[in-house]
Design goal:
487 residues, alpha+beta, 16 strands
Length: 487
């Protein structure tokens, strides 16, 4: 009786602590969708389209044991562990995306269809748990490009027509859309047998971990995460005869879940078989941590997210660059360039955007080698445009240096501008040194040739088309001397 009471108490604790984790077995997913997505995974693997990321943790570079690729809305990015990934764009109306092969196009198309399906399931799950105020929703997933496919799913019973077509108050509609409209998916692949070492789960004895305990980063607040799992299970990996770890079969992949920063509440280890998917609803990603427990077979997963793209889209950074360049003017007669304003706030804003486009976009993109060219050349034009903007901002920096060196500048304003300018340039110098070192690190050198980081932008002192040197040490020293002289 005591044992049964203990089990009931444990079950109750799990229901109260983990109720926002929803598991769906593979037989609830349309077979047609399984087939498309799983063929897509294998196609991407065949074309060597999964890559180990070079991430930075506590000032050190590491190559991830899991291989990944980001697929999603054109122009979106997703940042984790100081690495910005750029989406391979999935087929999207209004965008001219030239894929390297029809097979890669089909793989990306399969993933956007999975994305739409998981959105519908997330909406239904939120309603089922009363995590959304109204029980009647308007399905927002199916736009013109996928309407026929969604209709076929509805006909097969995947989505209730009553659920997917009712009207809701506008505020509820917007909230639901914002929390479940996935804009990208991070694909993962790992073969545990190819790993020399897998870390052991440290708190609950759950065995080998493919991914350690973590929260997913850079997501819209209280948005749902959906994960579709495809382990390449064969006859050799049915049920393991090995001793089970805390009740789990070590041959089978699991998702682990625990209350954040709490090792007293029992953790969960949920088995994931071929074609299963799970949802982390509402604020679960903030209040809990999850891990991935390795099985014996290779495994793919597609992790659909509502990434916070407030500062992470191509549209955003182009807008920032255009804002900065508003302070640059060209003389109609001499064609000479000059600055419209030397006000400290304007200089500071322009130079901070200069840093943002260089270190959050250009260097991040080229740091990942030529991986995206295996899919499409879509990103090359936007990156060339950003580099052109950046070169103009280098000219703007040189113009500021020229102006603050002139004695006719008002002393107080000049000093304020130089002090502010120094802070941004010092940060630029620090980051350039850091990125140069990262490109030459032991971890970077271990990557295949076509994946090795490229230190770009980079130039030497004898390249006359650049207005300033790559190494800003002397420029900074001169500015520091100028501040002391002014004072």
């Amino acid at each position: 009786m005591k044992r049964r009471a203990g089990e009931r108490e444990k079950e109750l604790k799990w229901k109260t602590k983990y109720s926002k984790l929803i598991i769906r077995k593979s037989d609830t997913v349309p077979e047609e969708l399984h087939q498309m997505v799983q063929e897509g995974f294998l196609t991407l693997q065949k074309h060597d389209c999964f890559f180990q990321d070079l991430v930075r943790i506590k000032g050190k570079d590491f190559v991830t044991p899991v291989s990944r690729i980001l697929i999603g809305n054109p122009g979106c990015t997703y940042k984790y562990l100081n690495t910005r990934l750029f989406t391979v764009p999935w087929p999207t109306k209004g965008y001219d995306i030239k894929y390297c092969s029809p097979q890669i196009h089909d793989a990306c198309k399969a993933l956007i269809r999975l994305n739409d399906y998981l959105h519908i399931e997330a909406v239904k799950a939120l309603q089922g748990q009363n995590l959304f105020e109204t029980k009647e929703i308007k399905d927002t997933t199916v736009i013109d490009r996928e309407q026929n496919f969604a209709t076929s799913l509805t006909e097969k019973g995947s989505v209730s027509k009553d659920q997917s077509s009712c009207c809701v108050p506008e505020d509820d509609y917007i909230s639901l859309k914002n929390r479940t409209s996935y804009n990208l998916t991070l694909l993962n692949y790992m073969d545990p047998l190819q790993m020399l070492y897998l870390k052991q789960e440290p708190y609950f004895g759950m065995g080998n971990m493919a991914v350690s305990w973590h929260h997913d980063e850079n997501l819209v607040e209280r948005s749902t995460v959906a994960v579709y799992s495809y382990s390449c299970e064969g006859s050799a990996v049915a049920e393991s005869n090995e001793q089970k770890l805390k009740g789990r079969d070590p041959a089978v992949w699991h998702v682990g879940l625990k209350v954040a920063w709490d090792i007293e509440t029992p953790g969960l280890a949920i088995p994931l078989h071929q074609g299963d998917f799970y949802l982390m609803l509402d604020d679960l990603n903030m209040t809990h941590q999850h891990c991935v427990l390795a099985g014996f077979s290779p495994r793919f997963s597609s992790t659909h997210r509502v990434a916070d793209c407030s500062r992470g889209t191509l549209e955003y950074i182009i807008g920032q660059c255009e804002l900065a360049l508003q302070n640059l003017q060209t003389d109609s007669d001499s064609m000479a360039l000059s600055l419209k304003s030397l006000e400290t706030a304007v200089v500071k804003q322009v130079e901070e955007i200069h840093n943002e486009v260089e270190f959050e976009w250009l260097r991040q993109f080229w740091f990942q080698g030529k991986r995206y060219l295996k899919f499409t050349d879509w990103w090359l034009k936007p990156m060339a445009k950003l580099e052109e903007f950046w070169r103009k901002m280098e000219i703007m920096t040189s113009l500021v240096l020229s102006e603050v060196g002139k004695e006719e500048q008002i002393k107080e304003q000049r000093n304020e501008t130089i002090s502010c300018f120094l802070l941004v340039l010092t940060e630029r110098q620090r980051l350039r040194k850091e990125w140069t070192a990262r490109c030459q690190s032991e971890a970077a050198e271990s990557l295949p040739e076509d994946q090795k980081p490229e230190c770009r932008p980079f130039w030497t002192d004898d390249e006359c088309d650049m207005p300033l040197p790559y190494d800003l040490e002397e420029v900074i020293a001169n500015l520091q001397n100028l501040v002391q002289w002014v004072e």
